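Table S2 (continued). Query chain:
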Amino acid sequence: MLCEVSVTIAGARLAKSYDPVVTMGLLKTAGFIAGCAVYFGVWDEVAWAQVSPRAWISIVYLGAGASVFGYSVWYWLLRTAPVQKLALSLFLQPIAGTAAGVFIAGETIGPNTLLGAALIFAGLAWQEVRRPPRQPIGGGPV
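Corresponding output:
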């Protein structure tokens, strides 16, 4: 959670000054350096020859597709959309991930998953239809 918050805050600041792809490149480079430092010494224990082609394709997809493309779009939207509205899209990620699991990996959906999806959609709908707070008479804060 700390890493996600750090990346979100740093990314929002960088996105105001740099192109989204540059922002993503800076953040991914910093993450790679931090990851290498954290896992230093573990690399020798990995049996690289046993890593399957499917695993390598998955790693490339997660790095290029999900991370670079997804976050580049995210930071571009941060420059153009109100952050309050954009943050609501985070609630759709579990639903998109579940759909990908069902259609790509053949996973099954149980009642708890359906309940979770219903709660997410209900929360998003509530956010969209609720009325804005009323201003006091006189137009300013009391």
